[in-house]
Design goal:
- By secondary structure, the protein is of the alpha+beta class.
- It contains 14 helices and 17 strands.
- Strands 2-1-5-4-3 form a five-stranded antiparallel β-sheet. The protein has a five-stranded antiparallel β-sheet with strand order 7-6-10-9-8. A five-stranded mixed β-sheet has the order 12-13-11-16-17, sandwiched between helices.
- 28% of the residues are buried.
């Protein structure tokens, strides 16, 4: 512990609620004191002290007399500029902490010293109590199972072992030597993290915790529940962040959400999730394309090779569709047993370009999927190889404005799929004029 008091004049100290007084020395003798000095050294009055004390060293404990004599000689020569703290001085059965500051003066034209003495016993005791509390606080943090980081502008000031282990650091010292821990926050979230920190420092401590993703120091990615608040660390504002590792919980929630939205067999959207996806295009009156897929003669595959092989055929078609639709910012869903549906925003183009294009983008995608799928080979019983095919119905253009227009779009696309089946299967069929019957003339949307 160190208490630094740098007083260079004999002006009475106003910063301590404690006793302070003056003693005047000449030739090592006490020639004057005030009542406060008498009280500090255990005398009832200044007169009592003056009548009983000649040399100043008689009121100083023996183990301090050497240093007091050296300071006296230096002060007389004008070589002392700073005060001196004496801690745990035993005086008349009491243990005191005193601060002294000497000023060279003249008495009867001869060198003398006027010494201000302040009893700061309560200050030292308070500082020791604060340090004891600080040590206790640090001990609690270090033993906590929760990760704790104290930072100022993301510069780490204190961290416990639990935080080090959670964030994949090598040691506490490694973290404390970092200029900033902002690097563990994903780049897209750093501005929000800094804004949150500034709000806390401004006194707006959030009343709720937040779940964040961190890119940990060992390269792993984890999710943490954080509680952050303002504290005073070594006299200045800082942010204390308490973290809990909730990675397993977040992953479970993500898995449950994924299961709620996706078909178990193919991992594409289920019908409910498809309708949720369509809400945004409807709200924005988006022009979209729709494709419906149905595996040809699927019942024969199940009857001849079994449902496990049939499931493999379904999964393979789903993956083939996803591969071709991915770049179109579209969505793939399982519509029924062996049926799939696709929606994607239709590319805007000029009318002249549209007339010059022999086939629509939707038809091109459909033809590619149809061709690739029929080229694939599957293994049945006894490793017998077979091939399958798919029929596809397409509506190239529909501006969706309501659930009614969605239902109409799906119906006309299903009619096109029926036509593909009726014409021999293993082919693509496009809705007449390529658009939904509820749409305005196609030219109105080509610009």
């Amino acid at each position: 512990m160190s208490i630094q008091l740098d007083l260079t004049t004999a002006t009475p100290c106003q910063n301590f609620d404690s006793v302070q007084g003056y003693i005047t020395l000449q030739d090592h003798l006490v020639i004057d004191v005030d009542d406060n000095i008498a009280k500090i050294f255990g005398y009832v009055s200044r007169e009592t002290l003056l009548n009983n004390v000649d040399f100043v060293y008689s009121i100083v404990p023996e183990n301090y007399r050497g240093s007091v004599r050296e300071r006296y000689l230096s002060a007389i020569k004008g070589q002392l500029q700073k005060g001196k703290l004496y801690k745990d001085v035993s005086i008349n059965g009491r243990t005191l902490s005193l601060f002294s500051l000497a000023q060279a003066i003249k008495v009867n034209d001869r060198p003398a010293l006027r010494v201000m003495i302040i009893d700061i016993t309560s200050v030292v005791a308070s500082e020791r109590k604060h340090q004891a509390q600080d040590r206790m606080y640090r001990a609690l943090l270090n033993s906590s199972k929760q990760g704790v980081l104290i930072h100022r502008n993301f510069k780490p000031l204190m961290v416990n072992q639990a935080w080090v282990e959670m964030q994949g650091a090598k040691s506490i010292s490694q973290v404390l030597t970092m200029e900033s821990v902002i690097s563990i926050i994903p780049p897209d979230n750093r501005i929000n993290a800094m804004r949150r920190s500034n709000n806390i420092l401004a006194g707006n401590t959030p009343s709720f915790s937040s779940v964040v993703e961190n890119h940990c120091l060992d390269g792993s990615k984890k999710h943490f529940n954080i509680y952050d608040n303002i504290i005073y660390w070594e006299g200045e504002k800082a942010i204390q962040v308490v973290v809990e590792d909730v990675t397993d919980k977040v992953r479970l929630e993500q898995e449950l959400l994924h299961r709620a939205l996706h078909d178990d067999l193919t991992q594409v959207f289920n019908r409910s999730a498809i309708y949720d996806w369509l809400k945004e295009p409807v709200n924005n009156h988006t022009e979209i394309s729709c494709l419906l897929f149905d595996i040809d003669d699927f019942k024969k595959i199940n009857d001849q090779f079994g449902h496990n092989v049939g499931d493999e055929v379904i999964r393979t078609l789903a993956q083939t569709i996803k591969k071709h639709v991915k770049i179109l910012n579209g969505v793939v869903g399982r519509w029924g047993g062996e049926e799939f549906i696709v929606f994607f925003p239709r590319a805007r183009t000029t009318y002249a370009t549209a007339l010059a294009t022999a086939e629509s983008q939707a038809r091109i995608v459909g033809e590619r999927i149809c061709e690739e799928f029929r080229s694939l080979q599957f293994l049945g019983f006894n490793r017998k190889k077979f091939q399958s095919s798919v029929s596809i119905g397409i509506t190239d253009s529909c501006v969706v404005r309501s659930s009614r227009s969605i239902n109409t779009l799906i119906k006309v696309t299903d009619d096109a799929l029926y036509q593909a089946k009726a014409r021999g299967k293993n082919r693509v069929s496009v809705t007449p004029e390529g658009r939904c019957v509820e749409c305005e003339p196609k030219t109105a949307y080509l610009r």
